[in-house]
């Protein structure tokens, strides 16, 4: 998996842009007063720590099992679990960064890492990892991905827990009934989307993500069809998102809305989109490995498959990078040694395997990645193979830009909805996105020492 070498040395404290929700939180380390500039303390290695789950609800059950195992193995440490929906996590951390109340440890994936690191919120973990039993046991690509996303000082601010990958889920029973071939190419994908649609019977060929998280999925469809393999042009200063090939690809993709998709897709985030696919008669769904177990519970293992994204021009598979997830130690925590013990435990072989089997994702612990369940979870095995066998080119998204998460969410998700509704052209949308990205890249370049 190709890792971007562009890294920011942005050292000034910046307030992450975007809509900050008026959310309050208590309990951080010992006194709940930690803010971004607080240096915190190592503590006694005992007592209570607070853990914020960045995918609360979806992963709550798995984390509570890991916490129970941890507390049994470490009876002198208690973990307070706080589950936060993925769509609200950045806003909640941003609020706590300014007003106090950060946890001791929390989920910190690549997509949010640069913004948190730029505000001085996270503790560097290189020394702790070097002295840990985890050293040499973590997937090197995942570690490098988090380093690349984190700031520019070549420090590691988050210990990887898992890697996700884009998956095209399709209903094998519906495809067989319609006499359709497996949607392994984009041409077959569009053919199936049309053929499986019968609005009179409330049957649709595809469900498109129009709500929170829509931009990454749209980028995946764009680059997959266009075959463009780099997010930046040869100068490294201008993005390729508004390349004419990408514009044409987005036009074709957005035109699916309401033609072969439900109208409700306009506002659907991933949870609503997944639930809709699991309960209805929709042929295809683009999501990632994380929803595999949901589909198994809803449909069983015989009615669907999860395969790597379709191939495009010349049989090439091009997809955008899915962010590596991880656990970070907040600098303001008053009990860092105990929090680090929790990170070590959660990413140990047994617990990392347990978590990723539940999530259907690729483990970060290399010993866990050898466990038998990997070969039994077909989408996970296919994804791992696609990322390692040379069949897939990854377009690395610029997670290193502190403004990336805001640009790709708050600033442009409403505009993408306008594209779906026909109120904004694909070209206008992508030109606007490109202008913002080029400005963020220029600012990042200026901040490098």
TrEMBL record:
<keyword id="KW-0762">Sugar transport</keyword>
<keyword id="KW-1003">Cell membrane</keyword>
<dbReference type="InterPro" id="IPR006059">
    <property type="entry name" value="SBP"/>
</dbReference>
<feature type="signal peptide">
    <location>
        <begin position="1"/>
        <end position="27"/>
    </location>
</feature>
<dbReference type="InterPro" id="IPR050490">
    <property type="entry name" value="Bact_solute-bd_prot1"/>
</dbReference>
<dbReference type="Pfam" id="PF01547">
    <property type="entry name" value="SBP_bac_1"/>
</dbReference>
<keyword id="KW-0449">Lipoprotein</keyword>
<keyword id="KW-0732">Signal</keyword>
<protein>
    <submittedName>
        <fullName>Multiple sugar transport system substrate-binding protein</fullName>
    </submittedName>
</protein>
<keyword id="KW-0813">Transport</keyword>
<keyword id="KW-0564">Palmitate</keyword>
<keyword id="KW-0472">Membrane</keyword>
